[in-house]
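Proteins fold. Shown next:

***
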Amino acid sequence: MGPGVGSFGTACGGCAGAGRQAGLVLHLWVGGSVRPNLLLGAELVRWSTPQRDTATALTSLTASVYYYPVERANWFVGGGIGLSNYDNSVVLPALGLGLAVGTGFDIRLTRSVSLTPAVHVLWGTPRDVHTNEQLLLARGLRPDLIDIDVNASVRLGSH
């Protein structure tokens, strides 16, 4: 689990891009080792930016796989598939498919505790976004997030 920063952007059919927004990220991963170099788990990423009139958030919940290409190395690559939810204070939440890829490096502090700087890219599938009054605001919204975070990792057992 750890904090980070992220750059959020959107695109949609027939609308002008809103540009990118910076915000804070909270990253939580829970899982276990299938083999010494392969981890399976569930990952939750929450990006948000508190703004007075238009607070925006993206939440992604995925089933994830992390693979260490060199078994005794601390570098990993990974990804996942699951759900992505776009929310803005002036629209209704928009739920869709979420995809994530990432890479990082474990800096071992003890045998079972690491600090893990990582970079992730998350995408949401196109979906229609409606205002709180049910009016169509955007057709085929495609949210994306690039996040950089530092996680504290605790490994239980013998890995």
